[in-house]
Specification:
The chain is an alpha+beta fold and 210 residues long. The chain is 24% helix and 22% strand.
Length: 210
């Protein structure tokens, strides 16, 4: 298995700009705004609005808008809080996802704070661009590029989407909460194939809490 390598923000933005130059902007801003509201009635409205602002702010980088992911870290790790919002289908799939050890040092199951400091093992808030898929030490994974000042070190910190045993729903029965990551967005092994397939390259993952 290959080790993660950095996927530069500049290259991602250039690639996104090239795609945007070659095709019409679809779905359009109004379509996306309406689609998010219709498809995700259960998702926190404040975070939906912030995700929309992130889409506008990073228009040149995010070139695929059919599916938007929102990680609501205002919810405990025992709740399905990674929302995959399919704007074209008008549906939302909500899954379990971990937060970082540095964001919850006492392992309460609730994120206490965000950090993008290298070595913090914390979750960083903000807009991420989904990068290329690869096979690493955790198996099938997807790189993430931090687009905001609050998560600009995501590549240096090797923050990615991957699966692990400590995100398995069975842990909720035994300990009432998931395990913690080193800051990565970790889902259960039964969910990773679907997450990587649906949340493909060039899409927005927005992580925050109200």
């Amino acid at each position: 298995m290959t080790a993660p390598t950095l996927f530069s923000r500049r290259a991602a933005i250039r690639a996104g700009a090239g795609v945007l130059a070659g095709i019409a902007a679809w779905p359009g801003e109004a379509f996306v705004q309406q689609g998010l509201s219709v498809a995700a009635p259960q998702v926190n409205r404040v975070l939906l609005n912030r995700a929309l602002l992130a889409l506008a702010r990073h228009n040149r980088a995010i070139w695929s808008r059919d599916i938007v992911a929102i990680a609501d870290f205002g919810l405990p790790s025992s709740a399905p809080r990674l929302h995959l919002i399919d704007i074209l289908d008008g549906t939302t799939t909500s899954l379990l996802v971990t937060h970082g050890k540095g964001s919850d040092p006492d392992h309460t199951g609730m994120l206490q704070s965000f950090s993008d400091v290298i070595g913090s093992n914390a979750t960083a808030e903000g807009a991420y661009l989904t990068g290329e898929a690869y096979s690493g030490i955790h198996g099938a994974s997807r790189r993430l590029i931090g687009l905001d000042p609050t998560n600009a070190h995501a590549e240096q910190r090797a923050i990615v989407i991957h699966a692990a045993w400590y995100a398995d729903p069975a842990l909720l029965v035994s300990q009432g909460r998931l395990g913690r990551s080193d800051g990565c967005f970790v889902v259960g092994e039964q969910d990773i194939a679907s997450v990587l397939s649906r949340l493909g390259q060039g899409r927005l993952l927005y992580a925050a809490r109200e």
